[in-house]
Amino acid sequence: MEKANLVATTIEPLIALNIYLDMKDRIDQALNQLLENPNILAVKVLKKQKIINEIKSPHYSSNIEESFIIEQAIYQPNSKKVLGSIIITYSNKNYKELINQYTKILLIMFVVFSVIFTIFGLYVKKLLSPLRNIAKSLKEYSPDKEIDIPYLSQNNEIGLISKALNDMQKKISQYSKKQKNINQYLEEKVNEKTLELRRQLYTDTLTKLPNRHSLVNNIISNNDGALLIINIDDFKEINDFFGQIAGDDILKSFAYKLNGMFNKKQNSTVSRISGDEFALFFTKKPSKEEFIKIAEKLVSDIEKMIFLYENNELSIRVSIGGSYQIENILEKADIALKSAKKQQESFLLYDENLNIEVQYKDNIEWVKNLKIAIANDKIVPYFQAIYDNKSDKIASYECLIRLIDEDGNIISPYKFLTIAKKSRLYSKLTRIMIEKSCMYFENIDSDFSVNLSVEDILNKSTVEFIKQKIKEHNVSKKIIFEILESEGIENYEDVSIFTNEMKELGCRIAIDDFGSGYSNFEHILKLNIDYIKIDGTLIKNIDHDVNAQIVVKTIVDFAQRLNILTVSEFVHNEEVYKKVKDLSIDRTQGFFLAQPQNKI
To answer: Of 384, 425, 444, 507, which is least packed with CB atoms within 10 Å of its CB?
Structure first.
């Protein structure tokens, strides 16, 4: 077909030129030349769908069935105008003959190769027959059973293979016997180590008592029981004062004595569940009254114990929490223990009325709320005015922390500050208050105060943050730091370093809540302060509480001698306000004069 198309394409320009010039005789001449090709059977030339020339080969009629027709358009020279078409009848007889010839050759070759491969296959099969027999015998092989390998006597390649396999069989058999002995030895060692690891997993390494894992398993495997958790009070002090070696020695001695008191009773197990905590689990629990008596007697007996360390006689005190219910027994005994410590009781039995679980849930919820508020920028300062008692004008503002919850409610700090300290979020709240307060008063001509705890002052990174924000917003001459007079303020050296650094920058210092539980005039003398904020517990009833008046008057006189200004907090009515003025207190803060607002 490609040849036929090539012929048509080649002859088309010549035919087109002759048609265009109307040279019919030359068309006939060209067509006759085409018929010299034995494969061309007939040629027609059409002009406007009419045959103007047609010529056929003498072999046309005999070969017509083994032919095909192609048609080629004839274009006017140098134009795309169609003048007509040329139709060529082309024979494919030679092609079919060639195909038949090659087909016969391929069939002959296929038969020849099939015979060769069959003969070769039979030869290989015969050649591999010994190997197949050897392989068949090896299927039954195992190190414990010796097999007969065939062809060992043959002096050829097959015989060499059989001999090599036989030698290998003997060596494997010898190795297997040795390996069995080793495996037996290793199995014994593994069993020993497994028992040792099990003992380690369920035994406390120091006291050799069952540990927490053992106790939990014991609880799970029993349908009923009662539990006491025994905590050695202030055991850290023994470690700090006498050293950890002494602490470990006392723990071992205590464990031995405690175990000696109960090991004869088959229905109880003593365990050490953490550093200074032990547990006494009753698998067959006594009556509730007897259980309480056991716990109370245990407290008394432990307090009578004497522990010797390097000629020192040491005694310990314990707190005990108990649970008489098997469900969540470990958690309930732990809750009772924490409640006993909080209430400073030697023993408490778990009771639903303790409500500790509710408190735990509330604490967890508040931690979540705090984190959400910090992430969503919902910790904000509110500002409460502090008035000068002589001029009755605003002298400064105290910045008070507030939390805006997801419902838009304003939450006072007494609900979340304690949780913030326990959850280590307190320093973040301090930083937020410092930054927002300094930013707010940067362009306001007014003094303002911010609360700091001793923990804030002892935190070097928080102090550096405070310095940075003071300088960034240029508020060193406006800001007053109110240091809460609480536990830890007696670290005069550390606190003094902070107050001196702040005063060098131009800041002022106030002691907050003075007159509360930790009040000490020594704090005032050692800390170089500018203000004393008298605690609200002294102020709220000062209009009729004579003792409060005496204490406040003493504080005011003391402050005046040292040129320190005094501020009364929690002034809630006119009578208290008048009395505050009568006692010559310099400034007043309270709801009677102004409530905290989110702007001034």
So the answer is: 444
User: Among candidates 572, 515, 519, 566, which has minimal Cα distance to 538?
Assistant: 515
Angle among Cα 68, 71, 74 to the nearest 5 degrees reads 155
Per the CB < 8 A criterion, the answer to whether 481 and 507 are in contact is yes
The owner of tokens 């003025």 is 581
Question: Phi and psi at residue 585, in whole multiples of 5°?
Answer: -75, 135
Decide: 12 and 72 in contact? Cβ < 8 Å. Answer: yes
Q: How far apart are CA 598 and CA 397, in angstroms?
A: 12
The arithmetic mean of pLDDT across residues 113-133, rounded, is 86
Name residues whose C-beta falls within 8 Å of residue 596's C-beta, 6 or more positions apart in sequence.
382, 383, 384, 400, 402
Mean pLDDT of 169-176: 82
pLDDT tens-place string over residues 302-335: 999 999 888 788 889 999 999 998 998 999 999 8
The number of beta carbons lying within 10 Å of the beta carbon of residue 453 is 21
569 vs 591: CA distance, rounded Å: 9
Indicate the pTM of the whole model.
Answer: 0.53
Q: How confident is the model at residue 560 (pLDDT cuts 50, 70, 90)?
A: very high
For residue 469, give every residue at least 6 positions away whose Cβ sits within 8 Å of its Cβ, in sequence order, or none. Answer: 434, 435, 438
Radius of gyration of the chain (CA): 54
Weakest-pLDDT range from 128-132, 250-254, 336-340: 128-132
Token couple for 364: 């967890």
